[in-house]
Design brief:
Largest interface: A-B, 32 and 38 residues
Radius of gyration of chain A: 15 Å
Strand content of chain A: under 5%
Radius of gyration of chain B: 23 Å
CATH topology of the largest domain in chain B: Thrombin, subunit H
Structural class of chain A: mainly alpha
Number of strands of chain B: 12
Strand order of the largest sheet of chain B: 1-2-5-4-3-12
Largest sheet of chain A: none
Number of strands of chain A: 0
Helix content of chain B: 25-40%
CATH architecture of the largest domain in chain B: Beta Barrel
CATH superfamily of the largest domain in chain B: Rod shape-determining protein MreC, domain 1
Structural class of chain B: alpha+beta
Helix content of chain A: over 70%
Oligomer: heterodimer
Number of domains of chain B: 3
CATH class of the largest domain in chain B: Mainly Beta
Number of domains of chain A: 1
Distance between the termini of chain A: 20 Å
Distance between the termini of chain B: 59 Å
């Protein structure tokens, strides 16, 4: 238990640093902004009560917001991601259900399963994030394009990070 | 009572979700408003130390370009001095002569945090109230418009970039003198839109667009960019695309311009509103 808290603390700090120092500075043509810190919410243990996931999501979003002068934007979208997580896990659960005490990682349930899981969560998160950012429905399809393109990169980077994490 | 507890337990997730999302949206509403951006500023105090260290490293890699821009700026300033010295035929004048009083105050500041990828972009400067900066001062990079200071702490300021959906600026076409309103449409960080120019005047691609000085924030005649494209819309006005002179991706050293007579101008204008 204590071990787990330390482990997730470390993952949290590393991902936030990754996001703030590296990915926030990509700024490629205004359309591609990968947000990989959401991996922290993806990796939380399956059995964690949903309200605790929500509170952790809230804190994650708030910290990222502090670093990117966008108070509320990331918080709103991470809380949304934390909220749909239990339902997503339920819908795409493996045939034998989840093993007790396991975490939904690529290592435990395979690359294909993890890819579907990541795609749904990242899309939900980015949809809220980008529409909350513009906060209007004019240019609806341009925002949608930004969502899709950024999601593509976020998913790619998350899969990459998870791939290297798996080896350890 | 028991029923109430059961109800709360059953919907605990939904309730927590609604509360947290509510807080997030409330933060969004208060923190991202033009006038409440001071709030962001306070929060920024926590992360600014890290940003400063990072900036030191980044600065090192662009020293060459910075030298070049500074050198070219020096030259243009020398030209200005030359012109002014010729105009100044009288060496002595009364101290109370208002036409000889300083009108604008210039401060050099460094951009320590910047973004161009959002719809509402801000950048942070390394000077604040202690260096004489205050809100509603103009920020220029080189000789072109960059933004407006919207929040200050003792040592730092946050400026709203021209690349912000809330940014409005009174601008005119230099050749004809007609003025309109300049704003950013959120599409491209090298272009902005100029509206309210009537269709009966002729404009050309490449015409210079500059500030008017009507807002009492920017001095008159500061370069904004050149006309890259224009179209006649259904209304009586052009929709003009202005390609910006400032490269917001390379924003580094900026001038902060304070209007020393602003209070006087605004005070007078208020009487007639």
């Amino acid at each position: 238990m204590i071990n787990n808290i330390f482990r997730f603390g470390l993952i949290f700090i590393l991902l936030i640093l990754f996001q703030v120092l590296l990915f926030n500075n990509i700024n490629f043509s205004g359309y591609v902004n990968p947000y990989v810190y959401i991996l922290f919410i993806l990796l939380l243990p399956v059995e964690l009560p949903a309200w605790l996931v929500l509170i952790l999501s809230f804190i994650t979003g708030l910290v990222v917001d502090f670093f990117s002068t966008s108070l509320g934007m990331h918080t709103a979208s991470t809380v949304m991601a934390g909220f749909i997580r239990p339902y997503v896990l339920q819908v795409i659960s493996p045939r034998d259900g989840y093993e007790p005490g396991s975490e939904p990682s690529m290592f435990t349930y395979g690359a294909r399963w993890f890819f579907i899981y990541t795609t749904i969560m990242v899309l939900a998160h980015h949809l809220v994030l980008f529409y909350v950012e513009v906060f209007r429905l004019t240019d609806f399809f341009r925002t949608l394009f930004r969502v899709l393109l950024s999601s593509l990169f976020s998913i790619a980077f998350i899969m990459l990070i998870e791939h290297f994490r798996k080896r350890k | 009572m028991r029923n109430l507890l059961d109800f709360l337990l059953k919907y605990i997730n939904l309730i927590v979700f609604i509360i947290l999302e509510g807080i997030a949206l409330a933060l969004l509403g208060t923190a991202n408003n033009y006038h409440n951006s001071r709030f962001i500023n306070g929060v920024r105090g926590m992360t600014i130390g890290i940003e400063k260290q990072l900036m030191k490293i980044r600065t090192y890699f662009v020293l060459r370009e910075i030298n070049q821009t500074l050198a070219s700026e020096n030259i243009s300033l020398r030209h200005h001095i030359e012109l002014l010295e010729k105009q100044e035929d009288k060496l002595f004048f009364f101290v109370s002569d208002t036409s000889k009083q300083q009108w604008y105050q210039y401060t050099l500041a460094e951009v320590i945090d910047n973004s161009v990828s959002r719809q509402k972009n801000y950048f942070t400067l390394n000077k604040g109230l202690r260096d004489g900066l205050s809100t509603e001062m103009a920020v220029t990079s080189g000789d072109a418009v960059a933004g407006v200071v919207v929040g200050c702490t003792d040592n730092f300021s946050v400026a709203m970039s021209l690349l912000n959906l809330d940014f409005r600026l009174s601008a005119r076409i230099k050749s004809s003198g007609y003025f309109g309103s300049l704003s950013w449409d959120g599409r491209n960080d090298t272009q902005a839109i100029l509206t309210e120019i009537p269709q009966h005047i002729t404009i050309n691609q490449g015409d210079t667009v500059e500030t008017t000085g009507y807002s009492a924030i920017f001095p008159e005649g500061i370069m904004i960019g050149t006309i890259s494209d224009f179209e006649r819309t259904g209304s009586d006005f052009y929709k003009i695309t202005v390609s910006l002179m400032t490269d917001f991706r390379k924003l580094h050293y900026v001038n902060v311009i304070g209007n020393l007579k602003k209070a006087e101008q605004v005070g007078l204008e208020k009487q007639f509103e």
